[in-house]
Amino acid sequence: MANPVRNIIVVGGGTAGWLTAGVIAARHQGRIGRHFTVTLVESPNAPIIGVGEGTWPTLRTTLSRMGVSETDFFRECDASFKQGARFARWTTGAPDDGYYHPLMLPQNFGQVNLAPHWLADEGDESFCDSVCSQGRICDDGLAPKTIATAEYDAIANYAYHLDAGKFAPFLQRHCCNKLGVRHILADVEAVLMRDNGDIRAVRTTQAGEVEGDLFVDCTGFKALLIEGAMHVPFKDCNDVLFCDTALAMQVPYESPNGAIASHTISTAQSAGWIWDIGIQTRRGIGHVYSSNHISHEAAERELRAYIGSAADGLNARKITIRSGHRQTFWKGNCVAVGLAAGFLEPLEASAIVLVELSAKIIAEQMPACREVMDIIATRFNATTHYRWGRIIDFLKLHYVLTQRRDSAFWHDNVREESIPDRLKNLLLLWRYQSPAFLDEFDRVEEVFPAASYQYVLYGMGFKTEVNATDLSHDRHLALRARRENAAMTAKLVAGLPRHRDLIEKIVAHGLQPI
């Protein structure tokens, strides 16, 4: 083999760097130490951005495959369960305006599409409550499993909320102690290139030159490799998604035994929205807004009004959001992951899942030699471009369905020129037929399933034309699914523990290993 790929260099730590290093090292455990190395180089002084405290259910599989104990994860990362998101005041802005995007699929989703049946019935029950149990579970403050459920197994599908400042060091310890990842604490001074345009090495202040065959840029917004060395430009999407700033606070609970919400709460404001995430010891609350539509001072007033007296004496941390992504994610022998690849407002917690998906492709399709790397890179770029585009579409969907016209921000979000063409076409399609299982949303590259589109569309009052006579062929399946969902909801609401109670039991006694 002329130019084998044996030495993987991840530049930059944080969640992106350590997750990527861990996924690659776990996938290639049989080769570690035998002509294959995974090395992470990070500055001893680099701060962790640490905004992304929400995750997707994919993280359960990712951590499990890395050999991480779910019990240890809860104990060391201040973690809690996430069962979806509740969107408040997005449709009309009224105090009682809200809907869930849960993580459970609608009942019998692969057998029958319940959306047109729900639309035809015109009942009082919300779409979410009509087709799945999770909204009720969240309303009642319950956990998605019991202490008898094994690690990573679920009764109701779940992801996590976590302390990002604790998660990265937790991953670092696991990667170095269990997976054989080499850790170099050093500041990168320069990126050294080969004549063919590849990266040969990074030169560091404390450790000299670190050579490699494949370099993963996890240097965050600095993008030292993909932008600094490879000169890949950034593609803005602020013409579609207007929010460009965030103010974040860490708010303590009023009492140590206070309820922990098992879902993200996203509450629309005059020029953006507020996230509210509960972990074991505090809430992470932040205002994501468009600085073109509201001043920093007014945005902070809205944040403090939402929190109330618990915000007294707390400082808000300001974070600039540059919405968009790289025009190319993998160029030569350099691939960008995490913030170096791009960033979008955290409305659907897409940051960490994009790291997972990218790391998974790199690990599973690891090029054997430089001669085939460009083929893998082309595949990676096509898939990753598609995923970023679909996430942008899905985030914009939350804005274009609004009926709010109480500020310029909401007016501007429904302007036709701000809506991507693909989303326009889908909205036209959905006027006459609802998203369904086996639509294009269920291809391998897809990030959000058809069910996610249903929850948002019908949670926000979107109307799809339904001909009741067309539903007769599977009416019996729909009725059975609705009955099964009602029975399952009653059973889960009666049998699942309080969210905080389960977390305390996990921390004290642990979950059963798989």
What this model shows, in words?
- The protein is α+β, with helices and mostly antiparallel strands and about 525 residues long.
- Helices cover about 35% and strands about 20% of the residues.
- It contains 15 helices and 21 strands.
- The chain has helices at about 15-25, 60-65, 70-75, 115-120, 125-130, 135-140, 165-180, 295-305, 350-365, 370-400, 410-415, 420-430, 450-460, 475-495, 500-510, and strands at about 5-10, 35-40, 80, 85-90, 100, 160, 180-185, 190-195, 200-205, 210, 215, 235, 245-250, 265-270, 270-280, 280-290, 315-320, 325, 330, 335, 340-345.
- The strands form five sheets. The protein has a seven-stranded mixed beta sheet.
- A hairpin with a 3-residue loop joins strand 9 (about 200-205) and strand 10 (about 210).
- Helix 1 (about 15-25) runs parallel beside helix 9 and helix 9 runs antiparallel to helix 10.
| Low-confidence runs | none
Estimated helix fraction: 25-40%
Got a strand count? 21
Mean of all residue-level pLDDT scores: 95
Largest sheet: 7 strands, mixed
Strand percentage, roughly?
15-25%
Number of helices: 15
Helical/strand content category: alpha+beta
